[in-house]
Amino acid sequence: MAATGIQVLTNPTGGRRLVISDIHGFSRTFRTLVTEKIGLTSRDQLFLLGDYINKGKDSSGVLDFIMELQEGHFQVFPILGNHEENLLNAWAEYVRIRKADIEIDFASQIDALDLLNPKGELAPNYAQFLKTLPYYYELDRFYLVHAGFNFNRNKPLEDTRSMVRIRNFTQNPTGKTIVHGHQVTPLALIRQKISERSLVIPLDNGCYHGATFRGMVANAFGKDTGNLCGLDLDTFELFVQKNVG
Ligand SMILES: [Mn+2]
Q1: Rounded distance, CA 192 to CA 170, Å?
Q2: Which of 174, 171, 176, 173 is nearest to 148 (CA)?
Q3: Mean pLDDT in each 10-residue stretch from start to end of the chain (245 residues)?
Q4: Where do the structural domains in the chain lie, given as residue ranges?
Q5: Using CA atoms, how far apart are residues 58 and 243, in angstroms rounded to an integer?
Q6: Helices (H), strands (E): how many in the chain?
Q7: Ligand 1 centre and the CA of 51: distance in Å?
Q8: pTM to 2 decimals?
Q9: How far is the CA of 12 from the centre of ligand 1 (A)?
Q10: How far is the CA of 22 from the centre of ligand 1 (A)?
Q11: Distance (Å) from CA 101 to ligand 1 centroid
Q12: CATH code given to domain 17-92+124-206+218-242
């Protein structure tokens, strides 16, 4: 299982705090947003809200770039999305069944085949990386989470299932702003929530809508999606990168 628990971080000195969500295998789009649109520096903190993998063709390239940034001493803080949790659960089940000497084909159970090694197993460097991801971060004025929280539960900050899966998330009694991804939201609504300083800000504009996706043409889902978004938590500036693969 992935790590849980509160992650409290102090603000960077002289740098920005940026958030990106739902990259979904589009590594070139991710790199372009980070290096060209945002121009990330080592003084900035970059928070990533999960769903790095599946849908696009280069899940491994997305994870490689995150690890490359971390190894290059950029301050990158990734959390877990439901797509990563599903992969880790499938991997744990595969390992459990293999221990009983039962043959099982792991590749047939997952989408991102580029994460496998030549033996058809989840490559150890990706497994190791994914297992370390927490479910959320708490900052001074923000919670950052993949899908949201279920505040109808007694202990919403322990309900990890809701953190990666809740939909139509709007409720927020915390007094801090919650920034989340997971549910594709039209760009105009993302901009509106940011400009009115909503206590719940969605950031997933359905980057994968902007690509030819499983036989469907680009933007078959609608014209106001298909971008990867980056939000500056202190200025509320929104960086918008169209899908470039
Ligand atoms: Mn998701």
Answers
A1: 14
A2: 171
A3: 57 89 98 98 96 96 98 96 97 92 87 95 97 94 97 95 97 97 96 98 94 63 87 98 95
A4: 17-92+124-206+218-242
A5: 13
A6: 6, 9
A7: 6
A8: 0.93
A9: 28
A10: 7
A11: 33
A12: 3.60.21.10
